[in-house]
Amino acid sequence: MPPGLRGALTPVPETQAPEQSKPPIAESAQGGIDPEMRRRMISEAAYRRYAQRGYIEGFALEYWLGAEAEVDRQLANRERGLNESANPSGSAAE
Which of 17, 29, 70, 88 is the most buried (most CB within 10 A)? Predict the structure, then answer.
C-alpha cells in the first residue's frame, strides 16, 4: 500500500465519534454479511478509487464514503436478487 494511504482509509472507531451511527441503508444492505467482510469490501473499493485517481492524497474520506455507498448498493442489489429468485412468481404477475 502506498505510504500516503496507510491508515488513512481506516474508519474512525466508534469511541471517538459516538454521534455517528450506521445509516439505515447500511444495516439493511448487509443482508446478513459479516461486518468485517463489509469493511474489507469498502476498504478495497476505497483503495481502487485512490489508485484510479493516481494515488493523490488528501481525499481518504471521499474515497471511503464513495466506496461505502458503492458496497451498500451492491449488497442491497444482491439481497434484492436473492429475494426475487426465492419468489419468482411475485414479479411475473400482471
Answer: 29
